[in-house]
Amino acid sequence: MNINSLYGIETEDAADTRPILIVPYMWIGDFVRGHTVVRVLKDRWPNRPVDLLVTSLCAPLVDYMPGVRAGIVWDLPRGRLAVAKQWGLATELRSRGYGTALVLPRTWKAAIAPTLAGIPERVGFFGEARFGLINRMRWGEKALPRFIDKNAALALPAGAPLPGEWPVPQLFVPPEEIARWRQANDLGMGPAVALAPGSVGASKRWTYYPGAARLLVERGLDVWVVGGPGEKALAQEIVAAGRGKVRDLTGSDLRNGILAMAAAGVAISNDSGLMHIAAAIGTPTMGIFGPTSPYLWAPLNGLAATVVQTKAVLPCQPCQRTVCTMNDHRCMRDIDPSYVADVAQRLLVTHTRAR
Question: Which of 20, 112, 115, 225 has CB atoms 3.0–4.6 Å from 235's, for a disulfide?
Fold first, then answer.
């Protein structure tokens, strides 16, 4: 066996070409972080193709993930078993001849289709009494400190020590595709700041994006608002604060958000999927954190700036709650928009010079 000198991951049988299926978490940020699992598997088995099960929402991400052969697009409904859809997915998986499936979610439902497809090795952590569905059961998930540790550990041999650092997620967006996207949206070629004001959970949303946008526009910078349909009303508020000089790029196509983050000179984001996308692309990213811990939830890639309130120590922080129930959301309210604008401008200048 050879050992990957950077990460300490042993390369196993190079003659093994059996395809591997990853059943990942389907939230956008979690899906991006799942690319670390792909990279660990490719270090172990360089000649085993790796496919990802993916929802229609996350499907565009697969096109930019090195090392992924294909995405199996299949939308299973939340909250119900959907037996017919599970059988249909199992039929599709069986036709692809997978030798191994890594089932990252701990749910019973996530393991059904790989089992019905007869995939010989089905690896996952204990959860929801999945005996029989998961036949390479792992234990000790709760002892692992971070979400990335829990996921990527499944790509290592059972009982193997975790490496000192994991391979970081990567998204590669071709420059020519970025240029075409800018031209199609009449955005010019100047440096821009992308704002991602949305997130899952109201408590993770910094509410001063309109003020930051106004300050950035006053300094002569291009500003874009990026997000899904749920951020449309907020985007309009930010556009109004920028006196019409802010572009609303929100919409239902995640590819548009990926390209916006790739084209931007700096991204400012709440703890959200778009933060992980920007960081994995390599765009200098400012992550704004309040109720969540940067140690646990920041991108593995690292952030150009981790923004937290510094006015006072809050005993409730981090609470991990989706809605603030203490201290009137001070963990976010005490982050000043002028500070955020100042840091973004410095990063933009530094990044533009480095190009």
Answer: 225
Domains and CATH numbers, the chain: 2-155 (3.40.50.2000), 176-354 (3.40.50.2000)
Which residue stretches of 230-269 are H helix? 232-241, 254-263
The closest alpha carbon to 209, from 223, 230, 220, belongs to: 223
Q: Binning pLDDT at 50, 70 and 90, where does residue 332 land?
A: confident
Answer whether the bond into residue 318 is a cis peptide, omega within 30°. Answer: yes
Q: Helix/strand/coil (H, E, C) string of 162-197?
A: CCCCCCCCCCCCCHHHHHHHHHHCCCCCCCEEEEEC
Instruction: Find the DSSP H helices in 64-137.
Output: 83-94, 112-116
Residues 6+ apart with CB under 8 A from 57: 26, 28, 254
Cβ count near 342 (within 10 Å) = 14
Tokens, residue 332: 């976010």
Q: Please report which helix (H) or strand (E) contains residue 151, including its range.
A: helix 147-152
pLDDT tens, 173-219? 999 999 999 999 999 888 899 999 999 888 899 999 999 999 999 99
Please give the DSSP secondary-structure letter assigned to residue 11: E
